[in-house]
Amino acid sequence: GIRCPLQRSVKRRGATKLRAAEGTRAGAGRKKSMAAAAARKSVCVTGAGGFVASWLVKLLLSKGHYTVRGTVRDPGNAKNAHLKALEGAGERLELLSADLLNYDSIASAVAGCEGVFHVASPVPSGRSTNPEEEVIAPAVTGTLNVLKACYEAKVKRVVMVSSIAAVFNNPNWPKGKVFDEDSWSDEDLCRKGEVSKPMPLHLLNLILPRRLFSSV
């Protein structure tokens, strides 16, 4: 039962090799994890709490190779809880407070990002009494702030999400022709607020039979 010095030496060398192998595997795992994190592209989604933007954030996270920054008015607001519950959000989603009309906050949000999805836009809770001032002007200013910030940050690609309201209120557009990049809503109609008139009918039509609101 007495072990000779040679046996003890062999055992020690074996244990040392085992620890070295485990350390090598652990180091390789850490390097692989760090490489994967470094390979991820940072992208920013403005207005991340909105319906379209929320689905976009979900899609980007599901790809696995994007780190997403989402701008919202208040990251701590309960209405943004659905974003934090998305798969991968704990590791790859950061919610930032940003205001489209505050250039510095937008510049901070897009800094270091390779791509930006500009989805945010001012939406009045009811019918606007002054669409030029309440909707159009802040939307234009906000978009210009995003584009300027992206230019300064050398963002590689910007995707701007607009509204059908930008194209479909054109009384001179040929009936039956598909709306494309050549169609723009009539500016006078937009300024008068005429664009918002068909919206209740359009929205209700998505969920209710036409016969229930034919007089709307």
Outline of the structure:
The chain is α/β, with parallel strands linked by helices.
Topology:
Layout: H1 5-39, E1 41-46, H2 51-63, E2 66-72, H3 81-84, H4 89-92, E3 93-97, H5 103-110, E4 115-118, H6 131-152, E5 157-160, H7 187-192, H8 199-205
Parallel strand pairs: 1-2, 1-4, 2-3, 4-5
Helix pairs in contact: 5-6
What are the key terms here?
216 residues; alpha/beta; Rossmann fold; 2 domains; five-stranded parallel beta sheet; 8 helices; elongated; disordered C terminus; NAD(P)_dehydrat-like; Epimerase_deHydtase; NAD(P)-bd_dom_sf; NAD-dependent epimerase/dehydratase domain-containing protein; oxidoreductase activity, acting on the CH-OH group of donors, NAD or NADP as acceptor
Describe the structure.
This protein has two domains: 1-38; 39-212, NAD(P)-binding Rossmann-like Domain (Rossmann fold). It has 216 residues and is α/β, with parallel strands linked by helices. The N and C termini lie far apart (98 Å). Helices cover 46% and strands 12% of the residues. The chain contains eight helices and five strands, in the order H-E-H-E-H-H-E-H-E-H-E-H-H. It has helices at 5-39, 51-63, 81-84, 89-92, 103-110, 131-152, 187-192, 199-205, and strands at 41-46, 66-72, 93-97, 115-118, 157-160. The chain has a five-stranded parallel beta sheet, with helices on both faces. Residues 43-170 form the NAD-dependent epimerase/dehydratase domain. One of its GO terms (molecular function) is oxidoreductase activity, acting on the CH-OH group of donors, NAD or NADP as acceptor. Keywords: Oxidoreductase. InterPro entries: Epimerase_deHydtase, NAD(P)-bd_dom_sf, NAD(P)_dehydrat-like.
